[in-house]
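Table S5 (text form). Sequence records supplied for joint modeling of the two-component complex.
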Amino acid sequence: MFDIIIIGGGVIGSAVAYELTKYNLRVALFEKENDIATGTTKANSAIIHAGYDPVPNSLTARLNVRGNELAHIICKKLDVPFKETGSVVCAFGEEDDETVRKLYHRGVENGVPGLKILNKQELKTLEPNISDEATTALYAPTAGVISPWEYALAFAEVAVQNGLELHLSEKVTDIKEGNVVVTEKGEYAAKYIIAAAGVNCNDIESMVAEPDYTLKPSKGEYYLLDKSAFGIVNTVVFQCPNKNGKGVLISPTVHGNIIVGPNAEASEKEDLSTTADGLSFVRTAAAKSVPTLNLSTNIRNFAGMRANTNEEDFIIRFVRAGFLSLAGIKSPGLASAPAIAEYVRQLLEKDGLSLTEKENIVDTRKRIRFKELSPEEKNALIKENPAYGRVICRCETITEGEIVATFSSPIPPVSIDGVKRRCNAGMGRCQGGFCAPRVLELIHKHTGIPKEEIVKDKSGSTVLSGGAL
Amino acid sequence: MREVIVIGGGPAGLAAAISARDNGATDVLVIERDTCVGGILNQCIHNGFGLHRFKEELSGPEYASRFAENLDNIEVLTDTMVLEVTADRIVRAVSRDHGYMELQAKAIVLAMGCRERTRGAISIPGDRPAGVYTAGAAQRYLNIEGYMVGKNAVILGSGDIGLIMARRMTLEGAKVHACVELMPYSGGLTRNIVQCLNDFDIPLYLSHTITDIRGKNRVEGVTIAKVGPDRKPIAGTEFDIECDTVLLSVGLIPENELTRGAGIPIDRRTNGAYVYENMETLCEGIFACGNVVHVHDLVDYVSAESERAGKAAAIYASGNKASGRVIEVEAGNGVSYTVPQKIRPENCDKKVDMFFRVRNVYQNVRLVVRDGDRVVASFNREHCAPGEMEHIVVPVALMGNAEKLTVSVEEVK
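The corresponding structure-token record, covering 882 residues in total, follows.
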């Protein structure tokens, strides 16, 4: 009997696992894919929003602002790449100016620190490449950019060290009376089930009761530009939000690239394809903010899925006794993740779950980032372990030592993209063209998985079809 | 202080190092990131290398070995990655055996080669399943690792590596359904079209492109459409092919991150450094050669160009700087770039080798070098195409007092 079963290994499920494994509870997490962070968590704008967007007094407003505050602390503690770049919401004309003022007041009401309305000149100073058409902007200094998958992995890795029973590649197929989770591999009873299933929240919830909301999945497509484009913007550059979302943004990433997107198209939730029309929309919209933006430095297009519903707010409530559903967690879900976890803990406590803190918990995480070390540190490291002297991913300067270290991490990767999410190998301009065969070799060597069975990402995405004649 | 440091141990680096040694440099160091020298030639097990240089038909590894076996008195550091090069010729590198190194050189030769353009660079819409590879990556899996990447392939782009892989995959039992080329002409050598596609009945779709890739986890199929003169897909011309693999052969990009890091000016047309007649970059004492300067189609030309770079590096390291007035070379009508972009006539040995690519397919034209209206040199060509690099040799004496030379494609009158 588990105290807690979490369904879903995205950033929300992982953050909840991180929070609850600090206490004397038996916690399990079930994820249908072979890794943490393979859904919306890995495909979004990677922004820790400041919190001026959500309607005041909403759950979203509160959790966004609190989540931003927590991100600053947790990222330091768990060694997650995060940079407080600040953000600007740019206005193009009087109607937008009004929106900017409205967002400013909303932000102040939500308790967002440091907000300021910039005039044209101030905006130009902050963002020299911004369009001359931009009139004013809302500046939010606490907004930042993060590595979303490393955020989720950090939560989950620490949780595993604190006793989380992680079940990857185990899809939940039903939930039976008595709070019994049924998977492809077994049945597990729990005092509490917490559903953090992202775009699948309605499917999981309907195993218990008919959801009282409608899921309206919305797809967003992106460009990811080469590091040579870095510097075109300094902050997260938004346009004024509209009914479809926060609009197309241009932002630095914490990895040193530039991200451009997303559009917003109602979509089947499984459809993560990019489209000529969607990408064309993004190109046009982005040019409005920064006319000189050069998309020919693109290294990757991708699409992510928003778990939008007919409700504006996050939908977090007990559907029935012992079943807590975290539904409709769309943007700013990433920014809110640790605050949602904190809120979940409070709800459970209020429901009568007794929480006593574990005596010895892990609450730190550190990984070696060779590229960032000083020459002396590099030398010392290579002397200690020569594998750090062999660069495998030339674009990102990722060493064999860093890749090998992932296999002895709390959640070892089983795919080429799993390695990428853990140490950045293959994230650069050649997109693994050079290092993927070498990473595949290392996966084989350190996990024993036969080469023909090694996958690029999810189950079924095999890289090789077999031996040569 | 090292005399000459060559970065990259592929065909360009090896030829440069050997030439530097043969021209008097006694302390030459080659730094190679792979575990052995030879570069991309090691995975090019097909023949056709060396026809110009050795008058023989060699495989890639055989061609490389002609150089690799001639490295006496040259130090080679393999399994070593250069992290940074500075304009004052400091090389920072790292390896398992030697840790983090900082080396000062009198002269540097940049010979890092190029990399393949990826799916992202051309923004093909669709799903993102496994099964989409650059042709070179698939070639490595097959020829070095001994694994096939798929059984039913479509190749996008008709660059030479794509054509070679069409044949290679077929010989290994795969079905190659089509080679799809955006342009109205192939980007590869004619002999590869004939020997790799025609001989195996693989259809070449010119003026076509892939407009969609489908597949949840592994590629399941592609949509192909005809493109108009604007290279945009024409609605209604789409057709589908079921396949499990898409190979991309959509261009090569000189790998100039180190060059940029050193602040060396890059020509936007070649994506390589601007170079003088002796392959010196605009940063004194730093030379560049091979595919890092401009993408070649024949390794024979890479070797020759790199020998000039190696020689010049040795001369520079011995204390003799190149000097004199500079003639600018411009790409005129029908020419997309020239290498070199700058000529110092006083630094030339009678003739200058000039390389360039034409912008289109031409029949019976003249390649003309002009100083204003004056024709400096003219060369007749029955056929030229963007996929085949042009090489002309222009005597310095004919350049006279020119300040600027323009290379153009002109009609034969």
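Note: The helical segments of chain B are 11-22, 60-68, 119-122, 135-145, 160-171, 190-197, 257-261, 299-317.
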